[in-house]
Amino acid sequence: RNFLGFKQSQIMQAELTFNSNWNQSIKGSLVQGGSLSIIYDTQRLPNERSTYCGSAVWAINANLKFDNQPLPLTVNISTGEEGLVYSKPVPIPKNTSTVEIWFINTGRSGRKFFDSNYSHNYVFQIQHASQSA
Q1: Per-residue pLDDT reduced to its tens digit, 33-46
Q2: The overall pTM is greater than 0.90
């Protein structure tokens, strides 16, 4: 249990889903000091699918920019896997109020493709821990 008396899984974890139909959804709460995971459908970025010696040599990475951090955090979403893929949990910093997320698909060809809400990025509000109780 946390200092508020709730189980960590009740208030401190969120899943952000980015579906192939270009919808986004949130399960759980984005809370300071909690964590977020990304569920991403690779069909959103289907262009770079380089191979080398029969193996996939492409990747999709998520970039997360928390408003109180100077640089974005890069999280690998897929290294050659297709379909719905899951990230590891990412800690949400304390004293942050938003996170901007965008995705990049790269590979051996050197080309880059972006899923960035038409260069506006996907912006999500982060709750203060006391607001989520």
Answers
A1: 999 999 999 999 99
A2: no
